[in-house]
Amino acid sequence: MTRLATTDNGSDVRRATLAGLVANLLLAALKFVVGALTRSQALVADAAHSASDLATDVAILAGSHFWNAPPDANHPHGHRRIETLVSLGIGLAVVAVGVGLALEALRALWTARTTAPAVPPSLPVALCALASLAVKEALFHFTRHAARVVRSPALEANAWHHRSDAISSISVLLAALLSQFFPSFPHFDTLGALIVSVLIIRSGLAIVRPELGEAADEGAPPETVRQLLGLANAVPGVLSIHDFRTRRIGSDLQVTLHIVVNPDLTLREAHDLSERVEHVLLSANLHVIDALVHVDPFSPEKAGPPAPSPHLPERDGQATGKNRAQDCPR
């Protein structure tokens, strides 16, 4: 097996996350103050969402120090699954915030039958929501770009967390504006909080789904598998491929496969051929960091005669079984 060293993206991840943390801290404080002064439930809900972003920012800042650590005796495949756990934690935190806000909004709607009408959102609420929308959408694009440059699933998850906050600010903004045009209906704010919570839950589930797939050893997308198979099959001397498997490790891939080769190859020739296949897969710019190639000799009783190996020198027919490639034990 050949391994390519992964790039340490910790400093880039932390730099992008710190920018979001500062913005989230200022936005959460602003929303809480304006929401409390105007008694806007939707804006307070949006503030809670921004506050939850702070927790995920801290998780990424802490986790990035560990998931780039090199392999060791206890973690021979490295520590990239820590990033998977951080991403999964971000998604679950988003879902939990959404569920809590939904329950609070439903409670407010239920008790509104016997309590005083809700206070319609004011212009300051609308302005605060508009500012939040602009800042969070900018943070989404900034963080997503950084995540794709350094290929960090955790940073990508945090980017979508920013986008969910921007979407929730849209709901708050609409609730505030509708309340100004229809003051006789005092519950736009509470309905806005309920819509915000549903959008938050949806974005959280979107973050959780791919991380659960990786935790369950989900393989590469079909298109990536086709590309890798095509590259391996194109190596001269490879007659066919079977038992091709992939698994995700963070943002990278681990590949195992069996190649069928001419049974007349020497052990050295078969080994060199497997090395060429490994090199092709690892250098294909498809984020493969591990490639394990198992060599199988062609079996004439199962198929037609083996194809010649044009890239290897011809040998006389006196070669003995001692210098022929042998199938590895299964």
Radius of gyration: 28 Å
How many helical elements?
Answer: 8
Largest sheet: 4 strands, mixed
* Structural domain tally: 2
- How many beta-strand elements? 4
- What ranges have pLDDT less than 50 throughout 5 or more consecutive residues? 1-6, 302-330
Q: Determine the CATH superfamily of the largest domain.
A: Cation efflux protein transmembrane domain
Q: Strand order within the widest sheet?
A: 1-4-3-2
Tell me the series of helices and strands, N- to C-terminal.
EHHHHHHHEEHE
User: Ends: how far apart?
Assistant: 16 Å
Q: Tell me the strand percentage band.
A: 5-15%
Q: Averaged pLDDT, please?
A: 78
Large-scale geometry: elongated
Walk me through what this model shows.
With 330 residues, the protein is α+β, with helices and mostly antiparallel strands. It folds into two domains: 2-215, Alpha-lytic protease prodomain-like (Up-down Bundle); 222-323, Cation efflux protein, cytoplasmic domain (Alpha-Beta Plaits, 2-Layer Sandwich). Helices cover 59% and strands 10% of the residues. The protein has eight helices and four strands. A four-stranded mixed beta sheet has the order 1-4-3-2, with helices on one face. α3 (81-111) packs antiparallel against α6. The longest helix has 31 residues, at 81-111. It starts with a strand and ends in a 33-residue tail after the last strand. The model is unreliable at 1-6 and 302-330 (pLDDT under 50).
